[in-house]
Structure formats: C-alpha cells, structure tokens
Design a protein that fits this description.
Its main location: secreted. With 284 residues, the chain is of the alpha+beta class. It is built from eight helices and 16 strands. Among the domains are: 77 residues, Tumor Necrosis Factor Receptor, subunit A, domain 2 (Ribbon); 117 residues, no CATH class. It is 30% helix and 21% strand. The chain is rod-shaped and about 110 Å long. The protein starts with a helix and ends in a 9-residue tail after the last helix.
Amino acid sequence: MFLFTVVLLTVLSGAGQAADGHTYRRTDPVTGQQLLCDRCPPGTRLGAHCTSSCETSCVPCGPGLYTEFWNYIPDCLRCDACSDHQRVVRPCNGTVNTVCECEAGFFWDQHFCRTHSQCKPGHGVKAAGTPHRDTMCELCADGHFADVRKMHAACVSHSACKTDEQLVMPGSRWHDNVCATCDHLTLKGLVDVFEPVLSGLHIQYGAPIERLQKLVHRRLRRKRFGKRAALRRDEGPVHETSEEVHLNLPSIVEESNLNHLADRIARIILRFQHRCNGSAPLTL
C-alpha cells in the first residue's frame, strides 16, 4: 500500500521526470527512444502513452470519478462520499474530489463528526462550535449567568429589577435574578415567577417540574401548618397514581439537593409575602 502511494504520487507530480508540469519522459519500448509525452489534463486519465509516431491518448473520467491534476495514471480516482452527519460543500465534478463538512451542531474530530459539547451549568459559551472546532466554554463571572434552559447560552449580566419590582431571589451562575411585585402573591403568579429556576432544576437533576412544584408546596404547608398537617394534605384530596406517590415521598428525594433547594424557595416565598404588607395570605 505504501509503495502504491509513492508510485501514484510520483506519477501525479512527475517529480524528477517532467520537463514541465504538463509533460513527462518515457522510453519507447520498441525503439528505445527517449520521448517527452504530454500528460492528460484534469478530468481525464491516460488511455495510451505517446510513441515516436503518436501523441498521448487521454480518456475522460466517468461518473463518480475524477483527476485533479495533469497526470498519466491509468485509472481515475474514485470520488469520496460524505460520512454520517456530514453535508456536501462541493460535489465531485470530474476535476475535483467531493468536499464534505460536518453539518450544523457537529464538528470534525480526526475521523468522524462529533456533537458540539454543551456547557455545564454555570458555564457559558466563550466561542461557538464550528464544523471544525468544538464549543469552548467558560465559567460565568460573579454577577453573570448562562441560562441553563438554552443549549448554547453565553454568560450575560444579571437583569436589574424594574422600579415596581422587588428582588425575590438573587441570580446565580445558571439563572437570572428573580424579581416580582406583590401582585404575584397568588399560587399561579409565584409559579410563573420561579418558572426559570424550576426549569433549570429540571434540566440539571432530571426531576419533572410538577414534582419540584409539589416539593415547594409541601414545604410551604409544613412551615405554615406543621409537618403532619402538610403530609395529610398531600395524601388526602390529591388523586395520584402509585407512581406519583412514590415520587413524592421517597427517602432519596429527602436526602437530595432538591430537598434543600425546595426549602430555600419556600423560605424566600414566605419572606416575600411578609414584605408585602397588607397583602392577602398565599392560598395553597
């Protein structure tokens, strides 16, 4: 295989043999005469060598074949086919080989196209991935975040609350500041306010948003009515399947980060309600 490659490259380039790029030297096997033969142009191959009485004969390359340089090779080269997750940038046309490139969302990694990496929570895109390079990520600086709900988000500054809003929950490296007005003191309003945080937790931990909401609601009830009352309300009027009950009460959840985060959100909601003087109690 190595010998064939060397011979093929020598034939294509004519190193040490050609008077110029369009000719090559050979010895006539009949007369022994040294001849200077014309090479075949790109898109063709050698049909027959020149002789003392005939010029070089060239044959066009057929479909799916090509030659890119002036040559005297006996067979045209086969056009390359794009592999998985590649697209054709330039089709093979007889004089140039197929040019392939990784499709959107992939980059070339030595032998195949790989999916662009997703930045970890708290990290944003420093340089977007290209067909030739993977995504480059960086840790978001203090006061900045990369929205974990977006696949390729860059680090941006935390948003400032509007003049009629209060800061309910400071932003982190993976979510923005949570701002609200006292008009949000309804169950639906607070769910909407914390939706980015709950969605981010869903992405990071794989827990359904409904499950996270139930964890927060239970802790609010527990802080207001006590643990036993909260559990009774969980197990009473709510019609759940056995699987949903299992998801609500396993010890693994009680020991996870979700439990701590649900407690934190519940405390934040209660403090916010307390700050809204004269507002109606939150209906759970």
